[in-house]
Amino acid sequence: MRKRINFLWITAFLLCLALAVLSAGCGNKEAATTGDSKEQGDVFKVGVLTSLSGAEVYGGNITKRGYDTWADTVNQKGGIKVGDKQYKVQMFYADDQSDPASGADAVERMITKDKVDFILGPYTSGVTLAAAPICEKYKVPMITGSAESPMIWQQKFKYTFGTIPAVNLTASYPVNTLVSDIPGGAKTMAILAVNDAFSKAVAESFKATAEKLGVKVVKYDIVPAGTDFTPLLGAIKGLNPDVVAVGGHEKEHMEVIKSAKSLGFLPKAFLMHYGVTNPDFVKNLGKDAEAVYGASTWTSDLDIADALFESSKKFVETYKTKWGDEPDYTATGCTVAGEVFGAALEKLGAKPPLSESDREAMVTVLEDIKVDTLYGATSFAKEGDNYHNNTGLEGLTIQIQGGAVKIVGPKDKKLAEPIYPAPAWDKR
Fold first, then answer.
1. So where does this one cross the membrane (predicted)?
2. How far, in Å, CA of 145 to CA of 335, rounded?
3. pTM of the full structure
4. What stretch(es) of the chain map to CATH 3.40.50.2300?
């Protein structure tokens, strides 16, 4: 009888032990970590919220690469210097699934369960708008290296900042190039956009600039995500516009080009915004991507001094070695977001973990900071409709030429001549 009791006790003990081990391995499935597995107090815990699945996974992976390039480089150099000590960063990732509601839930879990010190923000503007109130609630600073909708900054969130100027500050540049800087420039334009915060803002800016320059807008459509562009482009083909301008993300942009080619439709120019600079755009479309115009704030052709990487040229080398592609302006904006947080922590002098008062003080530091980064002098507006947005960057007109991104405007910045009209599909 005693042997049976002992056997039952041993079995129960082993079962409990097994359950404990399993429980230890079943934490937050959404948040993955990188970096040294040190106790909090030895590292800054950094939350990264982006689209690792869903419709915007192309851009989500670009933001992750940009943030990771910053973190890996900082850690290789010993960490962020606070006083006489350096602290490495440990990254916690959450997948917003390309959905604002999922993003809000994910960022709250990172703040309450993972106890992150600050947030590197989402790829899309819609998720950023959903995550920002959560950061306000818990008083956790967030810098997005990607989101560009002016709606974010008009909300005047105290704890949210952005390194890329809002699209209404940059989308006018390629329209100006196509209309004013090219002999015999565009006279008519059709505009399509997906119904999300960023894409609608792109379309509105394209339309306002075109009308200001005397261009006739022959079609203006805002359509739901997942719309089949083929019938829309079929109708536009009959209107014969000089330019088809699209507000969307990489996936929609690629679908527009494929649909247009299937219809044998080729306007004098396709104009898009973000997505054209993403390496996946050219990889997936090949020669069909040629001559497509876009807007940017940075390209790998620029050479800018930088404290962490020495120069933007060295950054490009580092990024390309790590990921196999050159960075676009969003990947760079994400790396810059990390750089700005690092500079703010050095200036603040606060060690991990950050207290609520430390995080509040960081907001004040970020509002006053001016730091030289890959983007040049980076700072944030303290008032107005661009509150906490980095508004100091000048827009660039870019075009895909020979499979690469080339700066073709404004006139005083161009490094290549714009191609207009676009070559025929079978002449590329």
1. none
2. 7
3. 0.88
4. 32-165+328-378, 171-272+276-300+395-427
In CATH, the architecture of 32-165+328-378 is 3-Layer(aba) Sandwich (3.40)
Q: H-type helices in 278-407, by residue range?
A: 279-285, 312-323, 329-348, 356-368
Give pLDDT tens digits for 294-318: 999 999 999 999 999 999 999 999 9
Q: Could you report the per-residue pLDDT of 199-235, keeping only the tens digit for each?
A: 999 999 999 999 999 999 999 999 999 999 999 999 9
Q: Which residue has the tokens 């703040």?
A: 111
Tell me how far the alpha carbon of residue 318 is from its chain's centroid. Answer: 19
335: buried, middle or exposed (CB in 10 Å: 19+, 13-18, 0-12)? buried
DSSP for 97-152, please give it: TT-HHHHHHHHHHHHHTS--SEEE--SSHHHHHHHHHHHHHHT--EEESS---HHH
Q: Which residues contact 93 (CB under 8 A, 6 or more apart)?
A: 30, 31, 32, 33, 48, 50, 52, 64
Give yes or no for a contact between 296 and 329, defined as CB atoms under 8 angstroms apart: yes
pLDDT per position as a tens digit, 76-118: 999 999 999 999 999 999 999 999 999 999 999 999 999 999 9
Chain position carrying tokens 């104009």: 271
- Name the class of domain 171-272+276-300+395-427: alpha beta
The residue assigned the tokens 């800054």 is: 44
Q: Please give the structure tokens belonging to residue 158.
A: 């105290």
Alpha carbon distance 190, 289 (integer Å)? 19
